[in-house]
Amino acid sequence: MILSNRESNDSWFSGQGFLLLWFLLLAFLLAAACVQPAVPSTQATSTPPVSPLIPGSNRVMAENRWRLVEIQFHGENVEFDALAPVYFTFWGDGHLGYRTTDCNATSFTIVSETERRYRLMPNISTAVSCSEIQYSQSSGIHRALMATTEYEMQGNQLFLFGDGVRITLEMDNPK
């Protein structure tokens, strides 16, 4: 008799138990399918606004060379006479660069924050054959430019400004 009870228990686990296991698994899968997946934030993947400062959006800026006229930084004039003339160029891929005739070239990536606001990220800078005064003046231009966050165009002049800084550029020799 013990043998026959064991046989009946084995058949219960292999028959009814198997069906019960499949039913629980199916219920779990259906419940999991009803849970909505988390939706990723669109803020992290949204594209930044396109600023007219990026040359693809403003042909006047990209199709002209801009000569540095004046820099005011924290109430002081930034000297650049040992480097003059200094030319600024806006490239169609969202970069800004300036170069001197003798010793230096520097480029920045323009990151748009709004239509008129931006920030600059430094890329490459060379200091080939710069004298000590030229290097010092180039560093002053670099510091002032990095502090700019907004721009405004008035006729053939372009003003880059930010907290305590104003850089005046003038259109010079269209490309």
Describe this structure in words.
The protein is α+β, with helices and mostly antiparallel strands and 175 residues long. The chain folds into two domains: 1-46; 55-174, Lipocalin (Beta Barrel), CATH 2.40.128.270. Helix content is 30%, strand content 37%. It has three helices and nine strands. It has helices spanning 2-34, 59-62, 132-146, and strands spanning 64-73, 76-77, 86-91, 95-100, 104-112, 118-127, 150-154, 157-162, 165-174. Strands 1, 2, 3, 4, 5, 6, 7, 8 and 9 form a nine-stranded antiparallel sheet that branches. Strand 4 (95-100) and strand 5 form a beta hairpin. The longest helix is centred in the first third of the chain and has 33 residues, at 2-34. Residues 37-46 have low confidence and may be disordered.
Broad structural category:
alpha+beta
Distance from first to last alpha carbon: 104 Å
Q: What overall geometry do the principal axes of the alpha carbons give?
A: globular
CATH topology assignment of the largest domain: Lipocalin
Q: Tell me about the biggest sheet?
A: 9 strands, antiparallel
Compute the CA-based radius of gyration.
33 Å
Number of strands: 9
Secondary-structure element order, N to C: HHEEEEEEHEEE
Outline the low-pLDDT stretches.
37-46
- State mean pLDDT (0 to 100 scale): 77
